[in-house]
Specification:
single chain
Length: 124
């Protein structure tokens, strides 16, 4: 998932059509799409500099795998499957683990939890 998402956001088409060929606009869009916020000045400049040094593929992969982005993805899976925020133990655990196992493993494990089973049977 991380590689596919990063390839989409780093593609020439996304960069040219959606971001208008502007690195600053492109990085700003990454913040909006992946973090649901506008970039702070220091963060924007950091990612622009890294784009110039390492390229868009490297930036999108590392941006997508950043702790903040992983935290948002963990939160989204909890909200979607369990209808709640991650708990204080689960959030940091899954945020770290999703870096190595991926989003699909997290979704699969949450969907196979006792909590999900109970909620699914209550709903249906």
């Amino acid at each position: 998932v991380a590689e596919v998402a990063s390839r989409f956001y780093s593609s020439d088409e996304y960069y040219t059509v959606t971001a208008g060929g502007s690195t600053s606009t492109w990085v700003t869009l990454l913040y909006q799409k992946l973090l649901n916020r506008t970039p702070d000045g220091q963060g924007l400049q950091f990612w622009i500099n890294n784009t110039n040094q390492y390229g868009r593929d490297w930036v999108t992969y590392n941006f997508y795998q950043s702790e903040e982005t992983r935290m948002r993805r963990v939160e989204a899976i909890y909200q979607t499957l369990l209808f709640r925020e991650p708990d204080v133990v689960g959030w940091p655990f899954w945020t770290a683990r999703v870096l190595w196992t991926g989003d699909l493993t997290l979704a699969w494990e949450v969907a196979n939890s006792d909590e999900y089973w109970t909620k699914a049977h209550t709903r249906y």
